[in-house]
Amino acid sequence: MTTHDTLARPLRDLRISVTDRCNFRCVYCMPKELFGSEHAFLPRSEILSFEEITRLARLFAAEGVRKLRITGGEPLVRHDIEQLIGMLADIPGIDDITLTTNASLLTPQRAATLRDAGLNRVTASLDAIDGGVFRRINDVDYPVARVLEGIEAAGEASLGPVKVNMVVKRGLNHDQILPMADHFRGSGHILRFIEFMDVGNSNGWRMADVVTAAEIRDTLATHWPIESLDPNYTGEVASRYRYGDGGGEVGIIPSVTEPFCGTCTRARLSAQGELFTCLFADGGYDFRHMLRQEQASDEAITRRIQALWSARADRYSELRTAETAGQRKVEMSFIGG
Known about the structure:
single chain, alpha/beta, TIM Barrel, twelve-stranded mixed sheet, 12 strands, about 30% helix
């Protein structure tokens, strides 16, 4: 069975945040002035257990979900995450389990263990190839070389091709577009440039800081001709390109200037058990309460999933204005990308 929303978009993807904690303090996501030593992260008792996550994922799969993405915060700081991967891999109907990580904790042994548990692919976040620029962005003095080692570990463990996501912000790292492209050309990994988005309210988003998809395409084309590729599947967020000289594939995620709301099939489950039907939502629905206080049946939870998705009308990026950009929204670190 597949549940559709008011715009006939099916429910196909569930992004599951397993923690609100991260070992980086990236300036556009978890800036130190807001997520410093005094910040109160969720206590363990408020975070969904692996059994609760698996139960919900199984019910979502029965409603049409085929792809699960594990996110955070940084998901690899959650203890025994491999156990959760194994539990999710046993759910009937789930075809693809991926993990988004900053790759700092992705050793060869960890990558192999995740693969053996049932993980299919890894997406790594990396916003600069220059060591100094990267240290300024992650703001914990973490070296870029160790992230690159994590990306290679994922590739060697057959968790690829690894998709490498670079958020591009004018004045912060826009000068890294060509160096990043040059590094990953021919590597077998797929670099994807992401327009700087107004997720949450802590990143100081301004339209003037957005390096547009058109600018990124033009910048790449000054050095290497690129050709457009068809999407791999309906609802793919990245516009795909290949280098004309055979240097591989590159992608651009243009969610600000070329929104793709019309094909969005994604729901997001926070570590605390709230379901969000849009990345830019201002609130979610509390499934943890249904699981614990109400001790709801599978049938009751399924009815709630169906009701929430069938009423969904979200298309924030298509309607974005300067006014809506300033409205209160859930933080990226809380529900993942």
